[in-house]
Write a structure and sequence with these properties.
heterodimer; A: 164 residues; mainly alpha; 0% strand; B: 357 residues; globular
Chain lengths: 164, 357
């Protein structure tokens, strides 16, 4: 191969290559590489965001579970407390009722006792009164008719006997 | 001739006729031998891989390309067709009172006797004007550049409209661009500094690749091969050399002029060796690309020449089979050599801008 007029190809190659480089750099390589880089960045960002979201989701899930667990525990505790309170109230009521009953019974007993005493006392008084009346009548009869007096006493005693 | 040679793969018989008639024509023009034609494979091959003022299309049809001369009296332009395919200095073209003749692709001022004057070894002694003609290779360079602009500017435009995954041509080109970025530039130059050199590497990669491929397309306006011209590969190698040299940091120059760990007296030997290394690297780039592409073309042409050397069509199937194999191989080599040139350019630039060893 003979190299002829080397200046022509060298001149045109330098000229065309430099123009081509400048044009392609401005209108092709720059925009293409820029777009590719932007896209890569956005893809990486999107992937990172997705990963972040996934982690957050997991955290949320864990949180939810924890909250649920806590709520369940609280409910159990509340129920238990309520049951305890109920039992306490029932027990208290029972105790109080017992006490009240005892008191009423005691009161009734003492009332009965005192009534009884009062009744006995009255009875005694009546007996004493009757006795005195009888004695009076007897005394009065004694002064009129001996037989009658005796009959009277016997009647009186018979009366007293039926009275009792 | 280019077309004739390559269309053999498709139309053997037709190609036979074209090549042989074209040869007959040439030999008659040269007036070398009459009667029995002697087949000259070297001439055929050399003619094919050399630059030319005309773009041979088909048979006797050629595209006439502009001749641009910077003469003693200023700029002179005319179409190469005015030489009427003459390469022997017989046809004289007259412009601005100057006479020009063409001898073996070189344009000279016509001598006293109106033609070419020779020295004892039959070399022309005429002086010649500076020749900035649009030759076949320059034409191919324009074509490759135009196609690159037509391909990549719309591709860049498509990214403005389409923010999603690349589609169409962009979908085809983007992996190649990313290949240059991710597998050539970043590993060799480094993530911090590669961006500045991307336009150069991409332009070189695609220009060489397109240039190689054009040489394999067997019809007009292709068939010209940029990269089998050592001047073209040389200019690209010089660009790489200039970029490497002007990007060199203090480590790079320190490595050349004060190679670390080398005793002082040895530097007397080391400095010339390292300086020589600066030039051998781009020289190797130039020769590797040129030689690979030219060799492929020579092998294919030689295979077809076998038919004429043995003077029998029986060799044709063998020639075609081997040439087809070579064509496929050349397709690989076209991409491979573009890759190698770009890779080594990136490697040299990477060595120049490396921060530390």
């Amino acid at each position: 191969m003979n190299i002829t007029h080397p200046e022509s190809l060298i001149f045109w190659t330098v000229l065309v290559f430099v123009i081509l480089l400048v044009l392609l750099k401005k209108y092709a390589w720059g925009p293409i590489l820029g777009a590719v880089k932007d896209r890569e960045t956005s893809i990486n960002d999107a992937l990172a965001a997705a990963e972040e979201a996934r982690k957050e989701m997991q955290n949320l899930k864990a949180d939810n579970e924890r909250i649920l667990k806590e709520a369940r525990a609280e409910r159990d505790a509340l129920l238990k407390e309520a049951r305890e309170i109920k039992e306490q109230i029932i027990a208290d009521a029972k105790g109080e009722a017992q006490e009240q009953g005892n008191k009423i019974i005691a009161q009734a007993k003492s009332t009965i006792e005192s009534e009884k005493k009062a009744a006995l006392a009255e009875l005694k008084n009546q007996v004493a009164g009757l006795s005195l009346e009888i004695a009076e009548k007897v005394v009065k009869q004694e002064f009129s008719d001996k037989d009658k007096q005796l009959e009277l006493v016997e009647n009186m005693l018979g009366e007293a006997g039926t009275l009792n | 001739m280019a077309l004739a040679r390559k269309s053999i793969t498709n139309l053997v018989l037709l190609a036979f006729l074209i090549v042989s008639s074209a040869f007959a024509q040439e030999h008659h023009d040269n007036g070398a031998e009459a009667g029995e034609e002697a087949f000259d494979p070297t001439g055929l091959i050399m003619h094919h891989i050399s630059d030319s003022h005309e773009f041979h299309i088909f048979g006797d049809i050629s595209l006439s390309l502009p001749v641009i001369l910077w003469t003693e009296n200023g700029l002179v332009t005319f179409m190469s067709g005015e030489f009427h395919h003459d390469e022997t200095g017989k046809v004289v073209v007259e412009r601005n009172g100057m006479k020009f003749v063409r001898y073996h692709d070189e344009i000279y001022y016509a001598g006293e006797n109106g033609g070419v004057e020779y020295d004892d070894e039959h070399h022309p002694v005429n002086s010649r004007p500076l020749n900035f003609s649009i030759t076949k290779n320059v034409f191919t360079l324009f074509l490759a550049s135009a196609i690159m602009l037509l391909v990549f500017i719309p591709v860049a435009g498509s990214y403005k409209r389409n923010k999603g995954a690349p589609k169409g041509l962009a979908g085809f080109m983007e992996p190649l661009i990313l290949f240059v970025r991710n597998d050539i530039a970043i590993p060799n130059i480094g993530k911090k500094k590669y961006e500045k050199y991307m336009p150069y590497l991409l332009t070189v990669f695609f220009l060489i690749w397109f240039g190689n491929l054009f040489g394999l397309i067997p019809f007009f306006p292709f068939t010209g091969t940029l990269t089998n011209d050592i001047l073209f590969t040389g200019v690209l190698a010089v660009f790489t050399f200039l970029i490497t040299t002007f990007s060199g940091n203090k480590h790079y120059w320190g490595h050349i002029f004060a190679t670390p760990g080398v005793p002082k007296p040895l530097l007397l030997i080391m400095i010339p060796v390292e300086v020589l290394g600066m030039f051998t690297k781009p020289f190797a780039l130039m020769v590797r690309l040129f030689a690979n592409i030219t060799a492929g073309h020579i092998v294919i042409l030689s295979l077809f020449s076998l038919i004429f050397i043995f003077k029998t069509a029986a060799v044709a199937p063998v020639s075609i089979a081997f040439a087809l194999f070579m064509f496929v191989l050349e397709l690989l080599v076209a991409a491979l050599q573009a890759y190698v040139f770009t890779l080594l350019s990136a490697l040299f630039i990477g060595q120049a801008v490396e921060d530390h060893h």
